[in-house]
## 1
Amino acid sequence: MEWYQLVWSRFAEFDGRSRRQEYWMFSLFQFLIIFAGYVVGLALMAIGIGFVILGLCFIYSLISFIPSLSVSVRRLHDTGKSGWFLLVGLIPFIGGLVLIILMATDSDPGMNEYGPNPKFPEQPAMLAWSAGSYSPRPAVWPGGVSTFVGDKGFGFCSGCGNKLKDASPYCGSCGAQV
């Protein structure tokens, strides 16, 4: 329920990132609320108040459109994609499947252009590589603090941003030398 409330508290926030769990729990609650409303509405059609309940379900669907859209955009940001990728859903048959795959994809490790990884808010900013070169430049936290990732004191790989699991000189995820 806290994930559902979190989306409503950030209902018109289209910047930043949202975890898979936040997106899917909100989607589950949305489905259950609307499905239950329509079932109850259809069941009560015989006594005349079914139309009222169905109307309330429709109004709720309209009201929850913006929060659904914003959490979807933030979820795409978490995978490193632009929110405009939601338009892929307009492609018949394949579009919906592509969106489901994108929404189920794991987060970009570390910080990306949309902000820090919501899974690991304590993780420092990742290295941002200059375009066309391999010289690292510090990435900047939203607060303006420049840091480097990959120092042994931080415990994160400078190549992929994943948390280092042991004292090995190599990352267990990507194999980069730490």
## 2
Amino acid sequence: MWRDSVLVAGKDLRIELRSRVVLNQVIPVAALTLVLFAFALGPDRAPMTRAAPGLFWVAVLFATVLAVQRSFGLESTEGARDGLRLSGLDPAGVFLGKAAAIALELVVLEGLLTVGVVVLYGSHVRAPGALAAACVAGTAGLAAAGTLYGALASGLRVRETLLPFLLLPVVAPVLLAGTRVWQVALGIQAGSPQDPWLRLLLVFAAVYLCLGVVIFGPLQEAS
């Protein structure tokens, strides 16, 4: 399973490095989201500072949808999906590999967005450890859930429009919990970085990773 996951992740990442779709499309869209909200909130830094955690995670959710669509769109032509089924790779390995590739792309994006939040919104990081932990746990959950629902929608003609409706309501706990942890990490709200919201992110990621390992195979066959 682990060997297969490395193969699949390497395949997806090599394709992205050659095509540069994430670099040229996903990252600019996420960055543009922060810029537009900065204009909408006006020149006063106080509202922007308070809104920064939520806007960061909204931009990450939008980027997740684009990254998942891209990941499964690569296999929608020329029988690539059937070839992946017939390759003999462990379905759990395929799931973990695709989720790992999406997660790595999101981590790069989140690093750039964090810089954007600090520069555009005047935020100050008070607890970098909590901020990093929230990003890691939230990214794992988003990548796992996105891979599952991407596989569910991949066999449908309306997958581009259906995926956001399937995925965004499910990952609402990541938006909520990630925003709360970031509010503490940026000093906007009092509390402990090790609060229940961080544990919620970890539980969400663990549940979807375990669920994906178990059901991705049948889900892949059904799609």
